[in-house]
Amino acid sequence: MTTIPIIEKILSANDRLAAENRAALDAARVFAINVIASPGAGKTSLIEQTLKALAGKLRIGVIDGDLATSIDADRAAAAGASQAVQINTGGDCHLDAVMVQQALPQLKLDDLDLLIIENVGNLVCPASFALGTHKTVLVASIPEGDDKPYKYPATYRGVEALVINKIDLLPYVPFRMEYFRQGVETLNPGLAAFPLSCRTGEGMPAWLDWLAGQRRK
Ligand code: MG
Ligand code: ZN
After folding, report:
1. DSSP string spanning 21-65?
2. DSSP tag of 1
3. Can you give the pLDDT of all 217 residues of the chain as single tens digits?
4. Which residues are within 8 A (CB) of 188 and not within 5 positions of it... i.e. 6 or more apart?
5. Residue range(s) defining the domain that contains residue 59
6. pTM of the shown model
7. How many other C-beta atoms lie within 10 A of the C-beta of residue 121?
8. Number of the ligand closest to the Cα of 125
9. 180 alpha carbon to ligand 2 midpoint, in Å?
10. Rg of the chain taking only CA atoms, in angstroms
11. In total, how many domains does the chain have?
12. Which residues contact 95 (CB under 8 A, 6 or more apart)?
């Protein structure tokens, strides 16, 4: 006997709830993204800079998944999120559709244009659990190394946009951009990719244009 049927059952239950989440978001005309990355890649920094840039143009809500603290949701609120909700997973290494379903009633969806969900820092399982968002955005970063697409192919295959953060560190870190991007292209041809630095702001406009454009689709 194998455990595969059990995993399939859990995932299909998750998919059903994710579809319900999507329906609630669509009914309120909220465009939602699921932001995944390894710890320290800069998910919260990207969300902060996005909030600062789009404040006044879009009403943005943030759901922050975290193992234990509310540090990231506090940062989102400080950066200008119109609404911010924390999900403490109690040690779980990913968000799932149930957790998001429980968080959604804490938001006034009708008062939002965009919802950003920051997943738990983890490059493995967040990619397997649909949340009901419209797009999944992977944040990679230069210090993680250029081999990550080769080591985490399922994650790189399952996303609709890729932010390559901390490009200001390229002069100091051995990172072969060409090798990295070849790996990405093999797994996910034509993937929208945004090399940028949350620290210096370089490359941010292209990411913000993509995000604003997606919302209108
Ligand atoms: Mg964070
Ligand atoms: Zn997990």
Report:
1. HHHHHHHTT-EEEEEEE-TTSSHHHHHHHHHHHHBTTB-EEEEEE
2. -
3. 556 677 777 779 999 999 999 999 999 999 999 999 999 999 999 999 999 999 889 999 999 998 888 888 899 999 999 999 999 988 899 999 999 999 999 999 999 999 999 999 999 999 999 999 999 999 999 999 999 999 999 999 999 999 999 999 999 999 999 999 999 999 999 999 999 999 999 999 999 999 999 876 6
4. 156, 157, 159, 162
5. 3-216
6. 0.93
7. 21
8. 2
9. 25
10. 17
11. 1
12. 34, 65, 87, 89, 117, 119, 120, 126, 129, 131
CA of 166 to the centre of ligand 1 (A): 15
At residue 2, the pLDDT reads: 58
**Ligand of minimum distance to the alpha carbon of 124:** 2
Tell me how far the alpha carbon of residue 128 lies from the centroid of ligand 1, in angstroms: 19
Ligand 2 centroid to Cα of residue 164, in Å, is 23
Q: What ligand has the least distance to the C-alpha of 119?
A: 1
The DSSP output letter for 139 is E
Q: State the CATH number of the domain containing residue 100.
A: 3.40.50.300
Instruction: Give helix then strand counts, H and E, for the chain.
Output: 8, 7
Of the listed ligands, the closest to the CA of 73 is: 1
Start-to-end CA span in the chain (Å): 45
